[in-house]
Amino acid sequence: MTGTEAAGLKLNRRRTFLIGFAFFGILLLWQVYDSWCPTFLTDIFARRMYDLSSAELKAGDPDKILNVQWIVGIVMAADNLAALILLPLFGSLSDRTKTPIGKRMPYILTGTFVVAVAFPFIPLFFHANNIVGMVLMMAVTLLFMMMYRNPAVALMPDITPKPLRARANGIINIMGYFGGAFATVLGIFLPLSNYINAGDEARKLMTIEVPFAVASVLMVISALVLFFTVRENKLARELRDEMELGEQMAAVETPVDDDAPMSKANRRMLFAILGAEFLWFMADNAIGTYIGNYVIYYMNSGSQNTMILTIAGGLASVIGFAVAGSIADRIGRKWTISTGLSITVLALLLMCFVGPTGRVTGEHGEFAFPALLFGVWAVKGFGMALVHNCSFPMVVELCSSKKIGRFTGYYYAASMSAQTVTPVLLGLLFNATKAWRVLPVYSGILFLVSCAVFTLLVKNIRAKKAENVKGLEALGGD
User: Fold this and answer.
1) How far is the C-alpha of 33 from the C-alpha of 20, rounded, in Å?
2) How far is residue 170 from each of residues 167, 175, 230, 260, 401, measured CA to CA in Å?
3) Pairwise CA distance, residues 54 & 34, whole Å
């Protein structure tokens, strides 16, 4: 029996699973967005700039593709600038919102339905060679995902006591990866590279439209499941005593008090976590943004291999999320995250030595894909699962239940600011070096610095032992 169980705190796995439908919708849409949109932008900007077909671009001078990556980076980053304001804003607004359906649910439902309408128009405008329409729909999608994302993420700590949040975060992240798996499977059966390599007259809209439409439908379904099964107001009343006990057992240097300013020790802890998070999101988002182009234009391989990479990383991530809570119980959240970052650095170091095989296969003259890269992705996926599983609970550990939305906003402001900077910076590096090999080097260095910052500046504070908390016998199990 763990200390939290002895204290009368036990994770309700069924309820946590249902909350995970929010993450299901988030990662489902994000997987489609990150896998398709950078290649859409690369193709449409390069064709406009050089007045060539997609096939001519790919078969001709590879520098033409690299030359537009900084533009792709700007577009992919521009929408994230709004997130720096909107994520903390929606977090704070939802903290203060009171409605019959709860404080988070109005934002979740509104964001979901607007995104579901706008998202399928992105490939439609791309197919019509309409840059303005495509970028506008990308902006609308990102804007309303910000309305959805912060309240959806804050919902878990709203109704989960602090000592249980690492385990709960593992469950809901696994649910999120199931969402991403739907997009990945579609990408295997409807390869984007087949569309890109086809002549303008042979391109079929349904090849790129289906993943976006399916993502919209499943996102709506996931939001409805969440709405009909998780009653915010009722749960807040039922779990009041458990949440108070969780506050007493929190892993913080000094107790959290809404009526007093944040202590210097807790503030230092918050800044250290957010600083390291900024760096590892710069690294991870660089890979997420450009891996599709890396596979198609550097490895000269089919886009379905990007999806298989995602599956390999996703399966390893599920394992990581499943065990991260238990690891954190034994060695603490700090060392769990440091271990995950170290594992990821090793994976990126190996990726630096993996290049195109040179063996040509397939109707489009594609190279055979290096199998070693699948292993690299699995190792990276496991490592980053340990990181993501424990980092968000560490941030919301430093606030009371009245400020969860605000601190969730801080967490995502750090990640979004990183995602604003890194696509542009890496795009400029591609343009300057004319080398796709910059990708693993760039990300590996950032992961290494992030690991150093986190390990040196963040303290490993463990939750209080159950026996040190008064009056536990009066509380029943969940």
Assistant:
1) 20
2) 5, 9, 18, 32, 20
3) 20
pLDDT digits (tens, 9 = 90+) for 108-151: 999 999 999 999 999 999 999 899 999 999 989 988 988 888 88
Single out the residue of 141, 139, 143 nearest to residue 118, CA to CA: 141
Which residue is listed with tokens 């963040």?
A: 458
Do residues 378 and 425 make contact, with C-beta atoms less than 8 angstroms apart? Answer: no
Distance CA 107, CA 153 (A): 12
Q: Are strands 366-367 and 360-361 parallel, antiparallel or unpaired?
A: antiparallel
Tell me if 4 sits within 8 A of 163, measured CB to CB.
yes
| Token pair 């950078």 in the structure block, residue | 38
CA separation for the pair 376, 379 (Å, rounded):
5
Among the residues of 200-263, which ranges form H helices?
205-229, 232-238, 240-248
- DSSP designation for 403: G
* Residue 75 to residue 430: CA distance in whole angstroms: 16
Task: Supply 432's token pair.
Answer: 């300057």
Cα separation, 83 vs 103, in Å, equals 20
C-alpha span between 148 and 104 (Å, rounded): 9
Residue 108 lies in a domain: yes
Report the distance separating Cα 251 and Cα 319, nearest Å. Answer: 25
Whether 456 is in a domain gets the answer yes
Cα–Cα distance for residue pair 60/279, rounded to 1 Å = 36
Contact 347, 380 (CB under 8 A): yes
Phi, psi torsion values for 190, nearest 5 degrees: -125, 70
Q: Phi first, then psi: what are they for 270, rounded to 5°? A: -60, -50
Rounded to 5 degrees, φ, ψ at 361 are -140, 165
What's the pLDDT tens digit per position in 291-331?
888 888 888 887 788 888 888 888 899 899 889 888 988 88
Question: Rounded mean pLDDT of the chain?
Answer: 82
Question: Does the residue 6 lie in any domain?
Answer: no
- Gap between the Cα atoms of 35 and 106, Å rounded: 29
Look up the CATH number of the domain holding residue 255: 1.20.1250.20
Question: Which among 221, 224, 181, 156 has a CA at the least distance from the CA of 13?
Answer: 156
pLDDT band at 251 (very low <50, low <70, confident <90, very high): low
Q: Structure pTM?
A: 0.73
- Rounded Cα distance between 81 and 100, Å, is 33
Residue 475 lies in a domain: no
> How far does the chain reach from its first CA to its final CA, in angstroms?
15
For the chain, the domain total comes to 1
Beta strands in 294-390 (DSSP E): 360-361, 366-367
Which element (helix H / strand E) includes 418?
A: helix 404-433
In the predicted structure, residue 420 carries a pLDDT above the cut 90:
no
* 93-118 pLDDT, tens digit each: 888 889 999 899 999 999 999 999 99
Q: Print the domain residue range for 19.
A: 11-463
